[in-house]
Amino acid sequence: MPIQVLMPALSPTMEKGNLAKWLKKEGETIKSGDVIAEIETDKATMEVEATDEGTLGKILIPEGTADVAVNTPIATILADGESADDLAKAPAPAQQQKAAESAPPAAAKTEAPAPKAAPAPQAVAEPDPEVPAGTEMITQTIREALRDAMAEEMRRDPDVFVMGEEVAEYQGAYKVTQGLLQEFGAKRVIDTPITEHGFAGVGVGAAMTGLKPIVEFMTFNFAMQAIDQIINSAAKTLYMSGGQMGCSIVFRGPNGAAARVAAQHSQDYSAWYSNVPGLKVVAPFSAADYKGLLKAAIRDPNPVIFLENEVLYGHTGEVPKLDDFIIPIGKARIARSGSHVTIVSWSNGMTYALKAADELAKEGIEAEVIDLRTLRPMDTETIINSVKKTGRAVTVEEGWAQSGVGAEIAARIMEHAFDYLDAPVARVSGKDVPMPYAANLEKLALPSAAEVVEAAKAVCYR
Amino acid sequence: MAAPKKAAASTPQDKTDGGSPPEFTREQELKALRDMLLIRRFEEKAGQLYGMGAIGGFCHLYIGQEAVVVGMQMALKQGDQVITGYRDHGHMLATGMDANGVMAELTGRRGGYSKGKGGSMHMFSKEKHFYGGHGIVGAQVSLGTGLAFANNYRGNGNISVTYFGDGAANQGQVYESFNMAELWKLPVIYVIENNRYAMGTSVSRASAQQDFSKRGASFNIPGKQIDGMDVRAVKAAGEEAAAWCRAGKGPFILEMQTYRYRGHSMSDPAKYRTREEVEKVRHDQDPIEQVRNRLLAAKVSEADLKAIDAEVRDIVNASADFAQHDPEPDAAELWTDIYR
């Protein structure tokens, strides 16, 4: 029976990809291990190897086809003695799961799963006050917005450089630093050994002399190795030196849950870093905010923790086409206005918050959604003003609830708007467990729009 | 619990190749004597003030190790950076930082280098290129490597002198730093001050490789063991290492074999070694006495040496006086210098 070759998943988060090129023609003999096609994800071109032997029967997806979903049959292989007439007997894709799994990419790296090609974030209802009306917008991915922010700041200031694992020749484990080596050279785009504690310290030492490093962690999970340098050296030096010596440095990289990478690679450090005086902590959601806030972070004379989200890297958004687009650190944004309940979130938590607001609107509940954008210093005023209007609040975060950012927000609301509250503040958070691997369990461990809807209704007594 | 094993009376040994180090001129001898005496008298005074309760927290004295920083400083150029751990008073005085400012920081006063907010272990001076003063054992090694990275980035011809002890030499980030420093040929001298004890643990009880000059061997970093009690040997080694770094050849390791006379900190009863061991080093190898004896042999008068003593005592007494009378920081200082 002819064997179907399925569109392979080349990383944990990949849902679709482009069929760039067929390297074998119909009728050609194929041996196991032959490279038969090239697949393009949004970060790399990968080779697909055959795992079966025979003859390439029929190419089902021509080269140049974009957005081919994972598990779509892309070709058939005929075994010895089979002919094109047997093609009709090919089994349905559902029974051929194994074929896709057994076609591993030649260059796949488990450390750096590709982001999923997910739909663009929910349309944001409120215009950004930082962007002048009538500004021309360009559509780009968050990955590109981050790259442009770094490139612009590196052009502007020769003291800015970027260092980290695979940032230069590999072009970034998540392709965020793509092209920087080519433009700025190896002096300013520096591949480090796998040595987080060491290179974080090297970055801080360089920053103490006045250079402005951008230190990329492949993910913030690995920054646990470096957290002593981040907190004890970067955050405290200005104070310990009586103001003589500080440290203008950005630590950036993906934070929080990706997809199916389990406990050690899926943790949200929002609460950890936002606990520390001396650090600024930024965690944007929209492409424009990613760009404007990263530029602000690089210029900031203090150490800034810039928490990105891998799931969002491939998302596209509108970014103002301005020569120097800066979003000030420390200002939240009302992403959607409403009068019945305030929902406060940041980073990927906004995905659930905005989806929930859409659902709630269908039931007549108008939610005001605040995108915090910066966790430290926290824009308490925007939260409090909203709660004074709505009298109800729900916080949404992917991290754990205990000592979480939601707990902090709830405390501030209690301190500053207790008399305005019509219901206790509700928290939606990641469940109090290490991140499980199984798809169903992982989904249960993360917050969901449904949980946000439920919490919002509860505080509205609906 | 069994009493900790006393280490065999292991004392610093002269491992310098080819016998005696190059002689100092009379001026160099006098300067070395004066700078080492300043550190010793300053530290003795700090110990006294600690006993009186004027200095709080931890206070790690440098007495016995003076030749290391004084000799190294004589090998440096303007703009070279110095960074060390928590036993840092000697390093600060050697870089030329003001005794009043250091002592006032020890007493937590507003005239201290960090306005009283850093204390003994956390002091800095941009002007003197002193980058701390770090309380986390080994952290200064990555930071010092970063200072060298910055020199390399700017191409300014300066080097970073990164001091750490035999205890810190067992931290992981030291080797992460060694690897990057050699990989990128960074101008950094790693000065390992081997004073034989990491707090109460002797080198033999903590280190599989006790020859610290070899600790960079797997990264191809050259290293030398130096008699850290002889300021001339230290200076000569410092010059050799500095020339290596400035020539773009990368890092260099100097193991300075030295000894601390006092406990790890003021609260350490030092039960892990014998009184005889300490006395023997003081008697046979004291870095200050070595210089004094050479000067006397060279017919410098007792009166001239007494004049140096008196000058140093005046500086130290004045610093103690300042540090006890300078006001504490203003309460508003609590909230400054958190962000720029």
The end-to-end distance of chain B, rounded to whole angstroms, is: 51 Å
**Fraction of residues in β-strands of chain B:** 5-15%
User: Based on CA inertia axes, which overall geometry of chain A fits?
Assistant: globular
* Mean pLDDT score of chain B: 94
Q: In terms of per-residue confidence, which ranges of chain B show pLDDT below 50 for 5 or more consecutive residues? A: 1-11
Sequence of strands across the biggest β-sheet of chain A: 11-10-12-13-15-14-20
Question: Roughly how many Å is the radius of gyration of chain A?
Answer: 24 Å
Topology, number of strands of chain A: 22
Q: Could you describe the largest sheet of chain B, including whether it forms a barrel?
A: 5 strands, parallel
Mean pLDDT of chain A: 90
How many E-type strands of chain B?
7
Provide the helix percentage of chain A. 25-40%
Instruction: Tell me what portion of residues of chain A adopts beta-strand conformation.
Output: 15-25%
Structure classification of chain B: alpha/beta
Number of helices of chain A: 13
Report on this model:
The complex is a heterodimer of chains A (462) and B (340). Chain A has 462 residues and is an alpha/beta fold. Chain A has 13 helices and 22 strands. Chain A has helices at residues 97-101, 142-156, 180-184, 196-208, 227-235, 237-240, 270-274, 287-299, 349-362, 380-390, 405-417, 439-445, 449-459, and strands spanning 3-6, 16-22, 29-30, 35-40, 45-49, 54-59, 65-69, 73-78, 137-141, 160-164, 189-191, 212-216, 249-254, 280-282, 303-308, 316-320, 333-336, 341-345, 367-371, 374-376, 393-400, 426-430. In chain A, the strands form 5 sheets. A 7-stranded mixed β-sheet of chain A has the order 11-10-12-13-15-14-20, sandwiched between helices. A 5-stranded mixed β-sheet of chain A has the order 17-19-18-21-22, with helices on both faces. A 4-stranded antiparallel β-sheet of chain A has the order 1-8-6-3. In chain A, helix 10 packs across helix 11 (405-417). The radius of gyration of chain A is 24 Å and the shape is globular. With 340 residues, chain B is of the alpha/beta class. In chain B, strands 1-2-3-7-6 form a 5-stranded parallel β-sheet, with helices on both faces. Chain B has a two-stranded antiparallel sheet with strand order 4-5. In chain B, helix 1 crosses helix 2, helix 2 crosses helix 8 and helix 4 packs across helix 11. The longest helix of chain B is centred in the first third of the chain and has 26 residues, at 26-51. Mean pLDDT of chain B is 94; it is low at 1-11.
